[in-house]
Amino acid sequence: MQKKNKPIINLITGKLIFLGGLTRSGKSFLCPIVSTFKNTEMFICNSVAENIYYLNYLKMINNQSALYLFRHIYNEKIYNLNIGRDLNRRKFDYSSITKYKNQKIYLVREKSVKEGDIKIKDIKRDQNNYPVMFHDVLINPNFIFKSFPKSKIIFIERDPVDLIYEWKEKKYYGQFYSNPRNTTLAFKFNKKISYPFWCKGLENEYVKLNNSYEKTIFLLERLYKIQKNNYLKYKKKYKKNILILKFEKLVQETNIEIHKIEKFLNIKKSRFTALEIKNQNGNRNNIDLIRNKRRDIIIKNINAKFKKKLIELENLYLKK
Predict the structure, then answer these.
(1) Distances (CA, A) of 52 to 47, 71, 135
(2) How far apart are CA 40 and CA 161, in angstroms?
(3) How far apart are CA 287 and CA 99, in angstroms?
């Protein structure tokens, strides 16, 4: 019996660094800092790749197709970055080349006629690292490492109190998922209720909730638990490939945490790193007082069932 033909794609490089976490967990703080490391490019992001990842997680797209598309997207992004194609120059975007440690590199590439196989040889020879901003990266780490076996994941987790408070303020408890700006896979229920992909199958429970704080906890609890439990499950298997950081330590003890990242990635920081840490307001003062006030507000607005859920989330956050 003849085997089915499989789509193939030869990787330009496997040196991807996936920097992920839940929304509002600190990706935009860390990505530009890691991009200042030696032999490291400007970080890249792609919502289509993320949604392929989510669809595969839900088994709505098979592994073979998902792997091909996922690898193809980053192959193309990396190649384009190296020939100066599709560069973002918008001054105020966090992904703009104007914020990169040395934007002249990309301006030179943009004017160069060098491309094709010759350029691919250069990419392979240079062996640069490519940080990738990625939402909810630990939904299925096996998929990431099957796509890019030599890649590494840095997962940032943040105190659930801060996440609940900020998600609620941003209306991530439901309304946002019907907004045209939303790039996260979402579904409609009863033709009017929008909900994010990770709550597929729990629609009936979700629609019964009216309290915005309780809705937020409901959504965040499932998404965070999936990823933290995956870390606990796979941390031994991928000991050299997954690093977990706490947002609070990252922004308050930035220099110490950056040293930890250097060791994990086996890449040294550059002369640009200290300036970027300053630009990102690193090494901040203690932020516990703000969190305590936020917690009081949340507690006042939820019932006993959700108070218990909040405590469970806090305990899971503290679990090493």
Answers:
(1) 9, 11, 12
(2) 34
(3) 27
**301 touches 270 (CB < 8 A):** no
Hey, what are 19's tokens? Answer: 């920097």
Task: For residue 306, give the H/E element and its range.
Answer: helix 304-318
Sketch the domain layout of the chain as residue ranges: 16-318
Asked whether 23 and 157 are in contact (CB, 8 A), the reply is no
pLDDT of residue 3: 57
Give the burial class of 146: count Cβ atoms within 10 A of its Cβ; 0-12 exposed, 13-18 middle, 19 or more buried.
middle
Residue 119 C-alpha from the chain's centroid: 29
CA dihedral 134, 200, 196, 222 (to 10 degrees): -70
pLDDT range class, residue 309, cuts 50, 70, 90: very high
pTM of the full predicted structure? 0.94
Angle at 276 between CA 275 and CA 278, to 5 degrees: 65
316: Cβ contacts below 8 Å, ≥ 6 apart:
224, 225, 228
Arch. (CATH architecture) of 16-318: 3-Layer(aba) Sandwich (3.40)
Query: Looking at this protein, which amino acid is placed at residue 104?
Result: K
Query: Between the CA of residue 318 and those of 59, 193, 196, 239, 252, what are the distances in Å?
Result: 31, 33, 26, 19, 17
129 strand-pairing partners: 40
Query: What is the percent of the chain where pLDDT is above 70?
Result: 99
- Residue 1 pLDDT grade (very low, low, confident, very high; cuts 50, 70, 90): very low
Kindly indicate the confidence band of residue 233, based on its pLDDT and cuts at 50, 70 and 90.
very high
